[in-house]
């Protein structure tokens, strides 16, 4: 069998693309593949034909084809053409046609492709052939065209192709499809994909890099089309190409501007992210080394303009010299990243290298200090975002310790960072799906013994994370800005619950915790009032608890104070939470519209253990009273603590002695008790 027959692949899609009725039979004369045109001609479906286990085709449809002729075709290496032969339909109708039989091998099995070239279809084929010729002439005048045989050898090409590729007909004819492309892994992957599509009878289109006879690169928009040459009875492929080298060059220049730091020639952060993504996809192990110049702007101020311009260039040169063959990027003016497989001890040696090769300004060495972090992939972190966050956390830690070190974080710290990143991701989903829930912790008025206020507290039990405590959740939410979303969620739930209790005849106020970050939004007051209007909740039922850190910032920011005043005028009460743990200045107590002080539980916890704490807490209660503020003590866990706080003059107490945070239904049970 010839190489042509061995490599030629036939399927139903291919048969249906032919202009003639066609089918494939095996060496026993049984139908293997049955084309739609054959189905229309003979009146038998593919199911009808394939249901027969005897030589149905040979004995019925091709009964004039002798067994000797059949065996001869099967053993031949070439196609057999029979000018006039009779075939028979399902209705036993006789049809005279020309027959082309092509032997082939599929997975070791000997087969014959039968094509019946009916006279009326031959006329259409000639007509279509003329149309194709006209079309090809039009393409030749506009595009580069190359015709390949079924093995990928070049059969012919047009003048446009020769002009661009710098080949001559004598030299290029007989070359292979693969020799037109660069000799590298990327090109090999693309060309193999094109060839696979063509052999599966699929058209391929895309931008590809090619090479001229002299090895110079050029780019084309390539359309590769599988065809069948009726004259030679062979599979062929046509490549239609448009030169896009000019536009591709402009694109590369724009990409260079977009991805390269113009001052140093290093990658910028955008390009670094793409490179890291590619390395992660390939599962390549590496160290992500983040280097930051300490006190950079102070250095610039201390030295003249010349060092301002050369400091970064000189520093970049030293990175390039020390970390040879490593990928490098400039993140911002004084931060750099090196991607390297080098060991930790070698990376840390960069500090010694800088001391041995100082940067000079007017013959004086510039005292450069570097804070650096080493994060490994995949041992420490597994995404670009996580690598960056871990690096920033490391740099912060190094600078807090005095700087001028390159360190790696402990496994425990990386584990905590990974959990933090997962919390951020899961929290977004929880807020979107409203998976957070609200519990309420009651406050008891010491004079009446009744529950008058409940504090709304967010609780989150995630199916992946498990229980996430407020102490862990709130700082992350504040850092990411999701605290605003949580605040809106809590406000809406608090308003809805307060209104439910009011309609049930229960006189309960609901306190919610608010972050200063929420009040930095100048529309915060409006948002709160809009929520009250939306839910129909009276403003007098809502209290907003703020921290001393909030109060200190509000003291300096007039617009925050104005928003608080606006809400106070509508009837909302402000409570100063965690009193005693913050700042020494109490000026904000005069400026801000605070109605209640809530003494922090750390003082309550040690109340019975320390006489000093007792005096301090008594003093805080008296301070609040002197300013005509209500005073609440939180963290009360025993009757002894409650009794002592009552003697100090506290107005209300809150803590496990009364109740832990519970559901609205449990609050109602407590009210009954």
From TrEMBL:
Domain GGDEF as annotated: residue spans: 284-411
Domain EAL: start-end pairs: 420-673
Record-annotated PAS domain positions: 15-77
Residue ranges annotated for the PAC domain, each copy included: 204-256
Database matches in SUPFAM superfamilies: EAL domain-like, Nucleotide cyclase, PYP-like sensor domain (PAS domain)
Family matches, as InterPro entries: Biofilm_reg_signaling, EAL_dom, EAL_sf, GGDEF_dom, Nucleotide_cyclase, PAS, PAS-assoc_C, PAS-like_dom_sf
Pfam families named in the record: EAL (PF00563), GGDEF (PF00990), PAS_9 (PF13426)
Protein name, per record: PAS domain S-box-containing protein
Species whose genome carries this gene: Lysinibacillus parviboronicapiens
